[in-house]
């Protein structure tokens, strides 16, 4: 199957070709025909499967078919995302695929002045990508009109639930037209997601292209056992010995990300940190430098990393294991995308053995273990409680695949006070 077989407008096909794509991914091949039939969908797909184009292309196609292109610019499609990074990534995709149409798109989120967003909305926008908090600010100030919305898309709905946005989502949906088409995409497929779908979707078609919570088969995974105090030394060793030029490293806390970034710079490894306490400009610059190869290591927290989409990223390192098992799948899913091969390494100390057990239970397989001769852990060291730094409700027990909580710090992860906005054609 090719994109030509999906019945898309020639303007969209031209944009797809310019992006270098010819064949749809499995999620695109399954979702696009169903969406074009104006059906609601509930889609479960691993990160990196092309889901953004899976909803962007049919959404644009239906707008073209309805001849909205010649009408006044009004908000006809609304995409909600959990974080500013993902919002930016989605809007960039929309702009790329809509480049030969007259549709205007904008991304809005908090953390910057609201006035430029108001100006852009007043000029007329067809497609809005937003985080829930800042969108509610616009709704309360009556600076956005959502009465003409034909499409609502909830992207990475599992993360929005995990971050406590469920009530915000309900408030947004309450002001939308009842006869809209709703598309819900989720990387994981929990009971909470199913419950959400029964509230907001009308007889949805279920689409699932990967096993629930499965880790990608294109990713080579390994566990390196090491003492906590020697993790930085081992990471530096792996980067230098392997001549790694592009590495995404995950820490559990923002302070840990800053500290590790400084230590790597001391070791002569160019790096930058990206997390919720960084300004939007700093986060955008760090990501741009990483993509361009100006820095070798990007150190990130879980929430900040959502939306990072880097072609052929070769290495992901869990400097610290996540305390929520599903986050391991999201983390390593930054590599091995779209059929490319990748490597995911986790540096595990004795304190994290329970987290490791939860992760392996979730993905239903044992991850290969490695003990390097010069970095063998000291068997006399006993496990100690892990300081969660106040993140994710300060949970210190591994969770092996059950439903995720509704907690989350909105100020650090794309809610009311965490981001910016821009309009673009």
What does this 3D model show about the protein?
The protein has about 425 residues and is α/β, with parallel strands linked by helices. It folds into 2 domains: about 5-210 and about 415-425, P-loop containing nucleotide triphosphate hydrolases (Rossmann fold), CATH 3.40.50.300; about 220-400, P-loop containing nucleotide triphosphate hydrolases (Rossmann fold). Helix content is about 35%, strand content about 15%. It is built from 15 helices and 15 strands. The chain has helices spanning about 10-20, 25-35, 50-65, 85-95, 115-125, 130-140, 155-160, 165-175, 190-200, 230-240, 255-265, 280-290, 300-305, 325-330, 355-365, and strands at about 40-45, 75-80, 105-110, 125-130, 150-155, 180-185, 205-210, 220-225, 245-250, 270-275, 295-300, 315-320, 340-350, 370, 420-425. It has an 8-stranded mixed sheet, with helices on both faces. Strands 10-11-9-12-13-8-14 form a 7-stranded parallel sheet, sandwiched between helices. Helix 12 links the parallel strand 10 (about 270-275) and strand 11 (about 295-300). Helix 6 packs parallel to helix 8. The longest helix has 15 residues, at about 50-65. It is globular. Residues about 390-425 have low confidence and may be disordered.
How many DSSP H or I helices? 15
Question: Order of strands across the biggest sheet?
Answer: 7-1-6-5-2-4-3-15
Main β-sheet: number of strands, strand sense, barrel status?
A: 8 strands, mixed
CATH superfamily of the largest domain, called what? P-loop containing nucleotide triphosphate hydrolases
Number of domains: 2
CATH class type of the largest domain? Alpha Beta
